[in-house]
Amino acid sequence: MAGGPKPFGNSRLKFQPLRQSKLEKLEVMSATQQYLLLLGLALGILGAVLSLYGLARSVGPTRQEPGKDVPASAGVLSRAPVWGRYHARYYGYALLFLAFDMEMAYMYPWAVVFKEVGLVALLDMGVFLAILFLGLLYGWSQGALRRQ
Question: Which of 58, 104, 123, 135 has the most CB atoms less than 10 A away?
Answer without folding.
Answer: 135
